[in-house]
Amino acid sequence: MRLILLGSGAVRPDLVRWGPAQVLEVGGTFLLFDCGRGATMRLVEAGISPPDVHQVFFTHHHFDHNSDFGYFALVTWVLGRDAPLQVFGPEGTEEFCQVLFGKLYAKDIQSRRTRRQATEINARDIIQEGTVLSTPEFNITAAITDHMRPIINSLAYRIDSGGRPASPAGGSVVIVGDTTVCDSLKRLAKGADLLVHECTFPTAAIKKGSWQRWHTPPEELGRWAKEVGVKRILLKHFAVQERAKVESMAEEVKKEFKGEVIIGEDLMTLKI
Questions:
Q1: CB-CB neighbours of 192 under 10 Å
Q2: How far is CA 131 from the centre of its chain?
Q3: 243: closest CA among 222, 257, 223, 264?
Q4: Closest CA to 226 of 192, 200, 196
Q5: Which one of 13, 65, 138, 140 counts the least CB within 10 Å of its CB?
């Protein structure tokens, strides 16, 4: 498996760190997780043709995680995508796609139907934990996480290469959107080779903040990742822009976690 971090930033405009998105290549299949600001352009920069991505997985529907999706879906169709786009996400994903393509962009789509192409968007709300997609090459399971519930529903995903059950020779990646510490995520991440996790604010800011409290303090991330046997952590979703503050948050994670802690950068590639 090969993971490319397309965007390591969060909400704020940042020319270095673009919006939340990552793509995982497993056996020649490209799986896109979240589709934030600039994700499609980052795919091109990474050498991946956008129409080659046929599955998209949303962690949740805050705008910084889905703002590029309309463009991605439409431009892959214009560029010749010849298969329906499969879209998975928490409750509200089906409605999100229906509003975008059945209402907001309906006339745009109608005006471009000049040749046979796959314009279908097959969206699915994931409302229970468990297997989301299983093939001979990989198995994807989801867990419900806690980020601004009950207003926002959110998920984390675990991808095991080698199908189901996971092959002993395969690898495992857990991709998290935004979340507080929760038991469901701990169970999902147990023994994972790589945990791709938010590192939005310093611990002190989260403890004294208001809406910041819906994120995981870096110190607690290191503690629970150690407890469940995660091997490596890739940090992303930085709301602070100063390099020194990002490095300081990474040091907070390292207080408890003794495995490798990687500060994510746009277009960084990791092999699993």
A1: 24
A2: 17
A3: 264
A4: 192
A5: 13
Give the domain extent around 220.
2-271
Q: What is the CATH number of the domain that holds 238?
A: 3.60.15.10
How many other CB atoms are found less than 10 A from the CB of residue 137? 15
Where are any strands of DSSP class E within 146-226? 154-161, 172-176, 194-198
For 238, the 3-state DSSP assignment is strand
Please give the DSSP secondary-structure letter assigned to residue 166.
P
Written as one letter, the residue type at 244 is: A
| d(C-alpha 111, C-alpha 250), whole Å | 49
CA dist 180 and 205 (Å) reads 14
Give the phi and the psi of residue 67 in degrees, each rounded to 5. Answer: -65, -20
* Residue range 168-182, pLDDT digits in tens: 668 999 999 999 999
| Contact indicator for 107, 131 with CB cutoff of 8 Å | no
Q: Which regions of the chain does DSSP assign to beta strands (E)? A: 2-7, 21-26, 29-33, 53-57, 85-90, 121-126, 130-134, 138-145, 154-161, 172-176, 194-198, 232-236, 260-263, 268-271
Q: Are 55 and 137 in contact (CB under 8 A)?
A: no
Cis link prior to 168 (omega < 30° from 0)? Answer: no
Tokens of 189: 């991440």
User: Count of CB atoms within 10 A of residue 113's CB?
Assistant: 10
Number of domains in the chain: 1
Residue of 164 and 126 predicted with greater confidence: 126
Please tell me the pTM assigned to this model. 0.95
- pLDDT tens by residue, 57-112: 999 999 999 999 999 999 999 898 888 999 999 999 999 999 999 999 999 888 87
